[in-house]
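Researcher: We plan to redesign the surface later, but first we want a full-length starting point. Tokens attached.
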């Protein structure tokens, strides 16, 4: 149970998303500030993950006496978290890729003209929650946990698709994505029930 600390980057992104959401409620006029604060939170998660990818271990996990299992090949492999999540070199690489992509999306959308009238706290919250879901998804080794992480990543995405309400095509796309997502999730869970 103590190796839940290995999910510290994911927990940081999720807590940062909640912080941004409440900031959007109490400070609705700081539009660009939310984007840069969100990007700073994602950069902090990169700072937690990068040492393991480059140096072979999480320094902050060693403080809690959680060490990677010896592989002898340069491959990092920590013990499974609750037999559902793997933290290894491949998952760390893809978590870093997801975080870099999310930072890029946030920075590109900073000056987008259609976002000037939209609540940026909500927008950043949705980006961060989808990022947290994708970070959990790349490390999932349990099929049910993978479905839950996929839903955590996709529910904010179909809200983001319809986020610009004055575009009719965006609303139509959000409804179609929602229907396809719920149908495919239902089929996956139906198939899982036979497993």
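Model: Full-length starting sequence:
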């Amino acid at each position: 149970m103590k190796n839940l600390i290995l999910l510290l980057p994911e927990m940081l992104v999720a807590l940062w998303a909640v912080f941004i959401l409440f900031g959007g409620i109490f400070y609705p006029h700081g539009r660009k500030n939310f984007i840069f604060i969100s990007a700073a939170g994602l950069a902090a998660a990169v700072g937690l993950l990068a040492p393991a990818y480059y140096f072979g271990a999480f320094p902050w996990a060693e403080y809690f006496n959680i060490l990677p299992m010896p592989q002898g090949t340069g491959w990092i492999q920590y013990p499974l978290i609750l037999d559902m999540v793997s933290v290894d070199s491949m998952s760390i690489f893809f978590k870093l890729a997801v975080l870099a992509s999310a930072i890029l999306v946030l920075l590109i959308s900073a000056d987008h003209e259609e976002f000037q009238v939209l609540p940026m706290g909500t927008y950043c919250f949705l980006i961060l929650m989808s990022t947290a879901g994708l970070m959990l998804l790349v490390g999932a080794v349990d099929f049910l946990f993978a479905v839950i992480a996929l839903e955590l990543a996709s529910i904010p995405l179909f809200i983001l698709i319809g986020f610009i309400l004055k575009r009719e095509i965006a609303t139509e796309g959000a409804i179609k994505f929602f229907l396809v997502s719920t149908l495919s999730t239902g089929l996956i869970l139906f198939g899982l029930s036979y497993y």
